[in-house]
Automatic annotation (TrEMBL):
The keyword Oxidoreductase applies. Heme binds at residue 450. It holds the Pfam family p450. GO terms for biological process: organic acid metabolic process; xenobiotic metabolic process. It comes from Chironomus riparius. It is a peripheral membrane protein. Its cofactor is heme. It is found in: Endoplasmic reticulum membrane; Microsome membrane. This is Cytochrome P450. InterPro entries: Cyt_P450, Cyt_P450_CS, Cyt_P450_E_grp-I, Cyt_P450_sf, Cytochrome_P450_fam2. PANTHER family: CYTOCHROME P450 15A1 (PTHR24300:SF376), CYTOCHROME P450 508A4-RELATED (PTHR24300).
């Protein structure tokens, strides 16, 4: 009898404990930001958010709707088991960027899946591991010429290849973002710093790499998708959730990069440590061989390479694509750009470099406005709070996931006058000096600022000026080729396929 009572007591305790846990899962934390109610404990707002994103054309659009609904620049969601806070306005976003307690990264199933089941690389790591690895990568990239004249030479080489391809188009309509024209050039610059070599545009390995990148981008979204919120779905629907696709892509990416690492291992010597990032990393591995808990491993090297290419290639090439598209949509802006270029190009036809961009303030303003207006990465993050902290008037518990509505911050009406209108003059004063750059944060700020922002800025400027120095851009006569301001949603926003005519300018007499 006593055993039966004891057993019954245990059962009742477990039932009441389960009810208590369930109740807590349904209850919003004290002083937490407002947001939609979550009725289902382990699903929360997942289905609701996906429905809004589909209805309004992207997750960033869904966030704008929710911010208006709750009349707050900060609102909360529950996505699966995670508490999520979304920050939407410039002051709030700037505060998050500048505070160390927001420098963490979530540690969930999906982000580990992104890095092949590990918590490695740079993008998805934090604290001591992240600090050590990021410092090393930044230092070694500089040693190989990143940010120096050698980087400008490589950018010039790629720009000349692009110009040569456009010359051969013979004024036939071309989509500059199609056939990986722009992306190939950006990737090749990154490739030389990372592997010490350049890949020919027609190399099968490059074609394979682009195919992997494109398939990968379709499998991810910034909230982590269903596999973050309900990772158990991989056992029920491995195909529908993208689990099998991502696992397959991880295997292919690892094998792809490992081929280059093995080539470096075969002819490694200490004297080559400044030739490229892979040699430098292998040297660091050698010096730390035998150390307990060393973060320098082959797997970590592969994850670093993956982060560099994923973070730097598509965003930059898409921004250039949008800048060129904008020229045919705003002919007056293109005309002013041409006039400014004609004033600064010297007798030898040498174009200004990025460090000399003060000679072309209007073009500088156009590029700034392109990146602000379109905001290729509308949601950045995700971040993780490293401790309990206060944001505005709300309490954000430790380990809360933070998503940053960068597009909203760059369209904040309290900062930008008529932000939905394309207007480069917003970045110029009456004396044609560039202004308002303090409020311009597409690369983030603080210690987690984008690692490749300098390369991105120089590529965008140089490619844009190079193309406009030689070509006038016109719309195609084919209605199906017309560009559109409505971008395709995804992790990164991208232009719908379009074509424009690159007509060579007549030389001055």
């Amino acid at each position: 009898m006593e055993c039966e009572i004891f057993f019954l007591s245990i059962v009742l305790f477990l039932i009441f404990e389960s009810i208590f846990i369930l109740f807590n899962k349904l209850r919003r934390p004290r002083d937490f930001p407002p947001g939609p109610r979550w009725f289902i404990p382990f699903i929360g707002n997942t289905r609701y958010l996906r429905k809004l994103a589909k209805k309004y054309g992207g997750q960033h659009k869904a966030f704008e709707v929710l911010a208006k609904e709750f009349n707050s620049p900060i609102f909360s969601l529950k996505l699966g088991r995670e508490y999520v806070v979304v920050a939407m306005t410039y002051p709030i976003v700037k505060e998050i960027y500048s505070r160390e307690e927001y420098e963490g990264r979530p540690d969930n199933f999906f982000l580990r899946l992104r890095t092949m089941g590990t918590r490695m690389g740079i993008t998805c790591t934090d604290e001591k591991f992240w600090s050590e690895q990021r410092s090393f990568v930044v230092r070694q990239l500089r040693n190989t010429g990143y940010g120096k004249s050698i980087m400008q030479e490589r950018i010039n080489d790629e720009m000349n290849e692009i110009l040569d391809i456009l010359r051969k188009s013979n004024e036939e309509p071309v989509w500059p973002g199609g056939s990986n024209l722009l992306a190939t050039s950006v990737i090749n610059i990154l490739w030389t710093f990372t592997t010490g070599t350049k890949i020919d545009r027609n190399d099968e390995r490059l074609v394979k790499f682009f195919d992997l990148l494109q398939k990968r981008s379709k499998a991810f979204d910034m909230s982590g998708g269903l596999l973050t919120q309900m990772p158990w779905l991989r056992f029920i629907a491995p195909e529908a959730t993208g689990y099998n696709l991502i696992k397959n892509l991880n295997t292919k990416f690892y094998a792809f990069f490992m081929e280059f690492v093995e080539e470096h291992l075969k002819d490694y010597s200490d004297e080559k440590c400044n030739d490229d990032l892979i040699y430098a990393f292998l040297k660091e591995m050698k010096e730390r061989d035998g150390q307990a808990n060393s973060t320098f491993t082959i797997k970590q090297l592969i994850m670093v390479i993956l982060d560099i290419f994923i973070g730097g290639s598509q965003t930059t090439s898409t921004a250039i694509d949008l800048a060129l598209m904008t020229m045919v949509m705003y002919p007056d802006v293109q005309r002013k750009c041409h006039e400014e270029i004609e004033k600064v190009v010297n007798a030898d036809g040498v174009l200004p470099s990025y460090v000399d961009r003060q000679k072309t303030p209007y073009i500088d303003a156009v590029i700034l406005e392109v990146m602000r207006f379109y905001c290729v990465a509308p949601i950045t993050g995700p971040r993780r709070t490293l401790k309990d902290c206060k944001l505005d008037n709300y309490i954000i518990p430790k380990n809360t996931t933070i998503l940053i509505g960068l597009a909203s911050a760059l369209n904040d009406e309290t900062i930008w006058n008529e932000p939905r209108i394309f207007n480069p003059e917003r970045f110029l004063d009456d004396n044609m000096k560039v202004i308002n750059t303090d409020n311009f944060i597409p690369f983030g700020t603080g210690r987690r600022r984008c690692l490749g922002d300098q390369l991105a800025k120089e590529c965008i400027y140089k490619f844009f000026v190079g193309v406009l120095s030689e070509f006038s851009l016109f719309k195609s006569d084919n209605k199906e080729d017309m560009p559109s301001l409505d971008l395709l949603p995804g992790i990164l926003l991208s232009p719908k396929p379009y074509k424009i005519i690159f007509k060579r300018k007549q030389p001055k007499i």
